[in-house]
UniProtKB/TrEMBL annotation:
Keywords on record: Signal
UniProt keyword annotation of RNA-binding present: no
Top-level taxonomy: Eukaryota, Sar, Alveolata, Dinophyceae, Suessiales
Signal peptide: 1-20
Domain Thioredoxin: 19-145
InterPro entries linked: Allrgn_V5/Tpx1_CS, CAP_dom, CAP_sf, CRISP-related, Thioredoxin-like_sf, Thioredoxin_domain
Organism from which the protein derives: Symbiodinium natans
Gene3D superfamilies referenced in this protein's UniProt entry, alphabetically: CAP, Glutaredoxin
Any one GO cellular component localisation term in the record: extracellular region
Entry protein name: RBT4 protein
CDD domains: PDI_a_family
Pfam family, one: CAP
Amino acid sequence: MPHLEGHAFALLWYAGLAAAFQSSQTNCAANPAYVGDHIVPLCAVNFPEKSSTTYASWVVHFYAGNCRHCRELAVTLQKAVSAPAMLKKGVKVGAVDCHDASNANLCRGHKVWKFPVLMILSSGSRYTGPLDTAAMVDWMSEVSEPGLLPPMLQKMSVCPAFHLYEEPQLAREFLMAHNIYRCAAGIDMLEWDMTAFQTARSYAQKAPTDRLAHSKPSERRGKHGATFGENVAIGEHLWPGQVVARWYDEIRNTQGGKFRPNRAGLGHYTQIVWRKTRKVGCSFGQNRRVAICHYDPAGNERGKHLSQVAPPLPGFFGREGQERCGAVVEEIGAP
């Protein structure tokens, strides 16, 4: 019996040692100034992995413990994540101390060279707004819902009654072209809207073919009086994928798809990937020399671009990203 008791003691001792070792590997140092009820300490051993189902839900504050600006941001962040809208959405927020030597590679890997940095992991978007709770909540609204499937696995929003629409093939092609890009950005798919289609068709029949010209706001109003957003294209023998790809190509004037303030010539691209837009209707006119799309709600709202323009997710840039979401846009509807 003493021999067996010795083995039992040894097993318990090893189990306790293993538990202590595991605990030391999963717990991160917590600086009270940066963590709280809704902000958890993160470090190399528990940092969210890209393969996890919650990765798209994370916002991370990279800070240095002795940084005054970091502490000021932390105060605003704590208020923002405690807002009912953020709690309901399930946004996960963590904080990493980049002055801790064990986190050096983690911070460098996310290209954090100065502090503070508040980052949405899935998009790499960094907060550049004021230390204002409402502004920070608005920015964090672009965080994906917890457990969101990768974009290529999301089900396209397709109306089951295309055959009831006027110009059903055109509707399907324009809608698919838009939703490929929105899929690549990980945001909600658009639906086809008959009122937007009718106002787009009405203007396309009289729009000039020698220059880009927008319709009057009064000519593109929805059922409830709101003005639709509008994209316009001109050319010869246009087709849906070509038109939408041309608009989206303005992404070349951005930094990886992120909006650049005071940069002209981005309005078509930003409307396509405007987060709050939910519906679209498009039409051709003048023997396919003019293409018009109307959007509801309208995008390009002043002062909202930094939070509303959705860049492509990592791995979903260019042709490869389009193929992962279902098709190469420029080929949709090609003659």
